[in-house]
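Quick review question:
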């Protein structure tokens, strides 16, 4: 368990153990949210956004027939240069 003190300005210093656990670095944003049971949780907002994007794109490669690096490059070339190169 870690303890942090709130300054007069409402600021806190996140303990080093928690920063390491969450992969937080200077300038990162912290996301606070309340669970249904009232517990407040904090997480690395950047990591949360990446997980959300990964979830949203889950299955997209398969749906587009992309299964290799060559398929990815072909798709990039199509977007960059149009159908014919």
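Suggested answer, residue by residue:
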């Amino acid at each position: 368990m870690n303890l942090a003190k709130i300054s007069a300005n409402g600021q806190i210093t996140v303990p080093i153990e928690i920063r390491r656990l969450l992969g937080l670095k200077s300038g990162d944003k912290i996301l606070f949210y309340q669970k249904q049971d009232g517990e407040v949780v904090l997480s690395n907002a950047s990591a949360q956004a990446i997980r959300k994007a990964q979830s949203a794109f889950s299955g997209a490669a398969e749906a587009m027939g992309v299964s290799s690096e060559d398929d990815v490059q072909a798709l990039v070339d199509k977007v960059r240069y149009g159908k014919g190169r």
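Why it works: Residues 45-57 form the longest helix (13 residues). The domain at 1-85 is CATH 2.10.260.10 (Pemi-like Protein 1; Chain: D).
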